[in-house]
Amino acid sequence: MIELSQVSKSFNVGKSNQFTAVEDISLTIEAGQLTIFKGPSGSGKTTLLSLIGCMSRPTSGRIGLRGIRTAFLPAEASQEGFDISSLPERFLTEIRRSTFGFIFQQFNLVRGISALENVMLPAYPTTEIHAAFQARARELLRLFGLSRHAASRVEWLSGGELQRVAIARALINDPAVIIADEPTAHLDSKLSREFMEIVATFKAQGKTVLIASHDPIAYDSHLADRVVEMRDGRIIPGGQQP
Amino acid sequence: MNFSLNRHRNIIDFSLSSLLRRKMKNFSLLAVYTLIVFVIASLLFFVHALKREAALLLADAPDMVVQRLMAGRHELIPDSYAGKIRTIPGVRTVTPRLWGYYYDPVFGANYTLIVPPTPTVEPGSILVGAEVSRNQRVRVGEMVAFRTSDHIPLLLTVKGIYPSASNLVAADLIVMASEDFQAMFNLPKAHATDLAVTVANPRELSTVAAKIVEAFPDARPILKSEMLRTYDSIFDWRGGMMVVILSAAVLSFVIFAWDKATGLSAEERREIGILKSIGWETADVLYLKFWEGIVISLSAFLLGGLLAYGHVFFFSASLFEHALKGWAVLYPKFKLVPTIDGYNLAVLFFLTVLPYTTATIVPAWLAATADPDAAMRS
Predict the structure, then answer these.
(1) Is the CB of B279 less than 8 angstroms away from the CB of A117?
(2) Domain locations in chain A?
(3) N or C terminus of chain B: which is more exposed, having fewer CB within 10 Å?
């Protein structure tokens, strides 16, 4: 379970151009569910996902994880829950690496290296041996039908293939939570539906999935356990609960 | 321990993949870098090996050489000086020496003429260095025509030729009997070029030298340590001149490498942002850049060092020999004994590997401290 309590995030604090991207958000996200954040551009969806994903810290408020396994805490401590908003940077990095898997709007793959190496990227700075995570990366590429592109540079792949590489990369460390920011923004309808089918397999595996999207194929999907509607950095009361 | 090692091995693995992405850029950088290290290492190796050879040669030299000066110039020294110097306490031996230079206008070469302290050749015979034999086109048993200072021809028979292995000292050498030497230069009897002095206790050298000057105000004692220092200075000066000449090339490379190493492209900044967002720590990014820098600079250091070793010790520093060996018509062809100064090597390492690696890490560190959520917004 992910708990947000009165979370706000402001940028350029104390300067003339200060603005608040997320304001006073309190929310509980159940583990193993698909939660979709819906709203127009600038509504604060991406900022909220980056706060939950330990990429930045809230200006105020608290974010807690409960019952979600982490690499640096024993299982009992993870069950009891802990506050991630006050953790030192290296613990946040560890959580990002082991607990969350990220799928970015622009895919954010590293050009010039192969699809296989891109998938392995989050596992390089771990203590696992290279052969082990390479085998896992190959298996993920096989699952997504990309085995023949394993050695291909990512700039040679199509949009759909790029996204599947990005998804495989998000899964390499077997994260408990998948965070996807506008994952269908650069896909046609067919590929968007295929993406939602992949999300269904995540749910089936018991993973918690958080998606920010203003694409109806995503937020109108029957897979969504909860749709949280946002505008101007706040949650609109009465968000859809299918 | 092993787990930590795995992490480093993984990061090294990725840094190699990362370098291979920009093959042309990195290989051209490596090639120029290697060339610079090669040139500097060649100079260091060559100068050090020559200095070592000089030191070995001087190990057999007398403790002191006494010359006579007249009007500030080197003048022949009477043999009578030797008798008086022998009586100074602490002096072991005093040997009058005859040596000089002969310019052959026909072949345009300078030869070094020496009379050995103990007779080695009979009057009318000579021993010659390999380069003299080649220059004069003479073999053992053939005669060489010299011209005395009175312009009278002097015919001497070659009795032996020094092997090429001794070229460093014997390339331009002609060994002859004292009678022929005196006839050649019309020297007065009972005079020598200088006196070779050995002493029983090396600590007394300066005292003995002072006593010689006291007894003969026109005498000039030269200690072995002074000769060694002079050789060192000459070779250091030549090496230094080469560095000055090459400094423009070295500086150009430094500016090029500095620009390449310190400036992160927008693509590299983006990559660092991606790595941070997917769980790389700032330290991991720095390790990555550190290994990238080390691979380039250490490879250049090792390659350049090995090439310089081969160039100096197997090809007699053929690229720099005219600058480093000095001027001569008869260039001695010799192979130096391989020897490397650890201090020189360490200096070269610290001047090549460390600055480049540091210059690579600093901008990466600045980029890696950025918030990882920048990747979400790119």
Answers:
(1) no
(2) 30-54+90-235
(3) N
